[in-house]
Amino acid sequence: MKSAACLRRPSTPKVSVLSIHVVTWNVASAAPTVDLSDLLQLNSQDLNLDIYIIGLQEMNSGIISLLSDAAFEDPWSTLFMDVLSRLHFVKVSQVRMQGLLLLVFAKYQHLPFIQIISTKSIPTGFYGYWGNKGGVNICLKLYGYYVSIINCHLPPHMSNNDQRLEHFDRILESQTFEGSDVPNILDHDLILWFGDMNFRIEDFGLLFVQECITKQYYQELWEKDQLRIAKRRDPLLREFQEGPLLFPPTYKFDRHSNNYDTSEKKRKPAWTDRILWRLKRQPQTSPLVSRLPSSYFSLTLKSYVSHMTYSISDHKPVTGTFNLELNPRMSVPLITMMPECLWTMENDMLISYTSTPEFLSSPWDWIGLYKDVL
User: Fold this and answer.
1) Looking at residue 128, what is its pLDDT?
2) Going edge to edge, which strands form the sheet with 89-97?
3) pTM for this structure?
4) Residue 157 or residue 64, greater confidence
5) What's the pLDDT band for 279 if we cut at 50, 70, 90?
6) Which residues belong to any copy of the Inositol polyphosphate-related phosphatase domain (predicted)?
7) What pLDDT does 334 receive?
8) Which CATH number fits domain 16-333: 3.40.50.300, 3.40.1050.10, 3.30.450.20, 3.60.10.10?
9) Radius of gyration of the chain from Cα atoms?
10) What is the distance between the alpha carbons of residues 33 and 48, in angstroms, rounded to a whole number?
11) Where are the domains of the chain?
12) Which helix (H) or strand (E) holds 80?
């Protein structure tokens, strides 16, 4: 009797889904006197977020403000921390360059699987010596995948489109990382790039643009949007994706209103505030193979909107909510903490820890204790 081979279906790797909320807002030096509920989607009953990524531009960067923020937490960071800490989020990292601020918050359960690789500031103002324009970057490993996050503020005005594209390239080229184990940014699994990019709407006159906005004929304006035009011409920029612009242009408004610029300058509205992303090219699998590749990593845009209720600035904030599906490359925390004994007020509190071989240690490593909010 012939023996029959036992056929087994290949096991499908377990996929985790992380919900990520990205915020970009040019606050125009305004103080944080707002309710963040709408901006952070706190009232969405079916939204269970895992990570917040928040980028601000044009924070108050006067000398007195910078000196105060160097000694104490800046008011915007404090406000975001006060709100998100009550929801079991911890500030993982932040970087500031003058008016640019980038914050990353994550839920407690994800902390053992996040490793900060670097934070960086790239000034492009005044021939690269001044940080009023440029970008700030946080590079991290998330469940074993490289993720680069960039918040930028590019040069303004209609005529400076070439300069904007030059600064975009300069920020990207400046993303070098110490250590041979960290790949080039273009080999990172995900780049999230957002901020006040200052791209404008070409050719069309003010009245035509205003009429299209009133009638919500946004598609009429897309063809003359400088960023969309540049993406058609530039192969690298074309690799960055963006959701459809189904919301009104976010610049320029009279403060404390939803009216576009009524000053003497009457600046033409534009989608200056944008959120882009780029995924590393995935190897193509055979159509006969139904299981996911072991390095499965996919990003899906769920929402891309502006928030018209905020009027303290001449810009409206923009948010993007994403689902990140991944097959975790690590299932064991990088660091495991082990209390030596029961902690009491009367005795010294001792703790030991072990790290995995994948953990890239540094003299800058630190251990943080976080309050468990019940």
Assistant:
1) 55
2) 89-97, 100-107, 51-57, 16-26, 318-326, 297-306
3) 0.87
4) 157
5) very high
6) 16-330
7) 72
8) 3.60.10.10
9) 23
10) 26
11) 16-333
12) helix 75-85
